[in-house]
Amino acid sequence: RDVISWNSLVSGYARLGQMKKAKTLFHSMADKTIVSWTAMISGYTGIGCYVDAMDVFREMQIAGIEPDEVSLISVLPSCAHLGSLELGKWIHMYADRKGFLKQTGVCNALVEMYSKCGLISEAMDLF
């Protein structure tokens, strides 16, 4: 099997909320791409397992995979629900350094995260 097939399977299970199956496949993968990692983050966020989503995000970075716009958008709701401003602010700085703040989706996710954490002025600064 190639990485595209593996990613399709992991993404499919994650979209269905079947994270045990997605996790088993994910850990079986020889080569994980940003798509693989983001599928897991999105899946956990989608079923409300916010700590797991943030753990996968951190593991991704430890594995040497740099977050892209989609992975940031996928993990920011977990930051918002858990009130994890430390990670949320790090993501904001990272997005700024990488030029991702030009992406509407990234800005919207940051605005939502700051708003849910009660930091309305930081949310307004993104406009």
Distance between the amino and carboxyl termini: 45 Å
Q: Any idea of the CATH class?
A: Mainly Alpha
CATH topology: Serine Threonine Protein Phosphatase 5, Tetratricopeptide repeat
Radius of gyration: 15 Å
Give the assembly state of these chains: single chain
Major sheet, described briefly?
none
Strand content: under 5%
Shape annotation? globular
Helix content bin:
over 70%
**Extended strand count:** 0
Named at the architecture level, the CATH assignment is Alpha Horseshoe
Low-confidence stretches: none
Structural class: mainly alpha
Number of domains: 1
Q: Give the H and E element order.
A: HHHHHHHH
Number of separate helices: 8
Nearest-integer average pLDDT: 96
Pfam families: PPR, PPR_2
GO biological process, one term: RNA modification
Family: Belongs to the PPR family. PCMP-H subfamily.
Organism: Noccaea caerulescens (Alpine penny-cress)
